[in-house]
Amino acid sequence: MAxxxxxxxxxxxxxxxxxxxxxxxAKVGKxxxxxxxxxxxxxxxxxxxxxxxxxxxxxxxxxxxxxAKEFGLRIPAVxxxxxxxxxxxxxxxxxxxxxxxxxxxxxxxxxxxxxHARFIGREQGAFRLVVGxxxxxxxxxxxxxxxxxxxxxxxxxxxxxxxxxxxxxESTELPQHLVMIGGGYIGLExxxxxxxxxxxxxxxxxxxxxxxxxDEDVASALQDLLAREGIDFRxxxxxxRVERNDASVSVLVEMANQSSEIQATDLFVAxxxxxxxxxxxxxxxxxxxxxxxxxxxxxxxxTSVPGVWAAGDIRGGPMFTHTSxxxxxILLSQIAGDGARTTERIVPYAIFxxxxxxxxxxxxxxxxxxxxxxxxxRFEMKDNSKAKEFGETEGFIKVVADAKTNQILxxxxxxxxxxxxxxxxxxxxxxxxxxxxxRDAIHIxxxxxxxxxxxxxxxx
Length: 460
Ligand SMILES: Cc1cc2nc3c(=O)[nH]c(=O)nc-3n(C[C@H](O)[C@H](O)[C@H](O)COP(=O)(O)OP(=O)(O)OC[C@H]3O[C@@H](n4cnc5c(N)ncnc54)[C@H](O)[C@@H]3O)c2cc1C
Known about the structure:
The chain is of the alpha/beta class. It is 29% helix and 27% strand. The strands form five sheets. Strands 1, 2, 3, 4, 5, 6 and 17 form a seven-stranded mixed sheet that branches. A five-stranded parallel sheet has the order 8-15-9-10-11, with helices on one face. α6 (216-228) links the parallel β10 (200-204) and β11. Flavin-adenine dinucleotide binds at residues 12-17, 35-38, 42-44, 48-49, 52-53, 116-118, 144-146, 165, 186, 276, 280, 312-314, 319-322, 324, 352.
C-alpha cells in the first residue's frame, strides 16, 4: 500500500465538525485525511441551514411588502418568481461550498479523499478502511457522517414522489397545495416559507402539539401565529396512505378514528432524521450504535472503540450546525490538546419562523421536573417600544430561573430576531451570572434588547 494512504487521523464526512477539525489537526502536525462522498459542507450548506435561511429571507421580504399599507406605503402587488428565489439560495450554497473546496486546494495535508468511506477491520492497532476504491490505514478515525430524512412508514409513500430536506431546492415548481408531514422545526420553517410564496399549506402532525420539545404555551403561540398566515394545522392526525394521480396526490389521514382525505398537489416529508451509520462497516471494528443507529459516545465524544470518535448529528443529542461545529473543538482538545473540553455545554438553538423562536437550555416543563424551586417570567413583545414602532409585536419572552440562586435555567424568545436576542441569556448563563445582571444593566432605547431586560424584571 502506498505510504501516502496512511494517516494519523481519517475523518469520515465533510460536515460541520469534520472540515474545521481536518484543518486544525493538520496545523498541529497530524497527518490528516477527510473523506467526503458527496459535497463538502454536508447538510447545512447544501440543503439545510444556508439555503433554507436564504429562501426565508425572500419570504420575509414578500410578507413585509404585503404589509406595506400598515406602514403608509403602496406596493400594488407582490409577485413571486419562485425559481429565482431558489436560484438565489442555490447560488449562496454553491459559493460557500466552493470556498470550502478552495481550502483543500494546493495542500496534501489535510488530504481530501472523494468517495464513500467504510471500515473493513484493524491492522496492528490501526484501522483499515476503504475510501472509494482505495485502502486507507488510520491510527484514529472520526465519524461525522450526519443524517438523512427519515421516510415515514406510510402506505404508498415508496411509490409517490415527494419533497424532503434533501431535494426541496431542486423542486422548482411552486406547489399549489402542499401537505407537510411533520410539525417539527424543519416542517414549520418550510411551511411558512411555502405559504408566503403563495402555496396553500396543510401541516399534519401526529403529536398533540407542533415543536414537540417546547413548552405547550410556546408551541401553541407559534402555531397560532402561523395559522393566522393561513396555514392549516391538523394535530393528533396520522397519515395512513398517500397515492399520486397525475398532478394531484391524495392523502388519507386519520384523527380520533375518523378518516378523511386531503387532495393536494405536493407532499413534503419532514418526519425526522435517520443517522448515516448503516454502510460504515462499524461492526468490523466493534463500534456500538443504538437501536436508532446513533453512534454511542461519552462526554469526550469517544465511541466504544478507543481511537474512534464521533461528531455532529451522528452522535445523538442536539442536532445543529453549531453543536457539530463545537464538537470539532471538543475533538481537537481530545485528540491533540489537554482533553479538557467535553459535551458539558449550554446549547442554544432556534426555529427560524417569523417571529423566530430563540431557545436556550431547559423548558419550564424540564426545569420543574428537576425538582428544584423555579420561577417563571413572561413579557409580551407588544409592550416593547421598538416592536411597536417597527410593527413586530407578535410573540413573548419566557425565562425560567432557579428561585434560590437567580440563575437562568432556560429561556424562550418568541419574537422578531428571537434567534439573535436569546444570546443575551446564553452569555449570561455561560458566565454563571444571575438574571439580576441583565436586570440592573442599561439597554439602549428603543431596542428589542430592552424586552430581554423587561422579561427578567418581571421576576421581581
Ligand atoms: C432543512 C434543514 C434545515 C436546517 N437548518 C438548521 C439551522 O438553521 N441551524 C442549525 O444549526 N442546524 C440546522 N439544520 C441541521 C444541520 O444542518 C445539521 O445539524 C448539521 O449540518 C449536522 O452536521 P454534521 O457535521 O453532523 O453532518 P452533515 O453536515 O450532515 O455532513 C455529513 C457528511 O458526511 C458525508 N458522508 C456520509 N457518509 C459518508 C461516508 N460513508 N463516506 C464519506 N462521506 C460520508 C455526507 O455526504 C455529508 O456531506 C438543518 C437541517 C436541515 C435538514
